[in-house]
Amino acid sequence: AQTASQYYYQGMDSTALNQHFSTVAMLMAEDVWNDSSSDRQAQAAPNKKNTSRQWVKDENAIAAGTWMLAFLDSLLHWEERSGAKSFVEILSPSHKHFVGKLWQHLSLAVRQQSVKLVLSSASPECTSSAET
User: Fold this and answer.
1) What 3-state class would DSSP assign to 100?
2) What are the residue ranges of helices labelled H in 83-123?
3) Which residues of 10-30 are buried (b: 16+ CB within 10 A; e: fewer)?
4) Are 50 and 38 in contact (CB under 8 A)?
5) Cβ distance 48 to 102 under 8 Å?
6) CB-based contact 64:52 (threshold 8 Å)
């Protein structure tokens, strides 16, 4: 996403990239954010909802959270540079694997730590413009 965000694309010309990012979001939802033992339970009872992964170490959950924020930032930057209407499918709240839905798999404390870590490592230009 970070590499894609550096180039100018027309919204309609980026169908393959959109499909790729939708696949990435699906894999993240199924393999990273959901508890793998609940996947086996879901196969046995298809109507049952998946449960969020219980991270053994908070540091791993925070690392996943900071990665998610960077992924989201790159996708938003890509849309912004295009100058077109919204076209990245996984940024739409109605999408099955909307990035915001994935973010909800993390606890509030982990989300707060992830945001704090990202903001503390932001460049001075970013923080000064955000504060004004």
Assistant:
1) helix
2) 99-103, 108-120
3) ebeebeebbeebbeebeebbe
4) yes
5) no
6) no
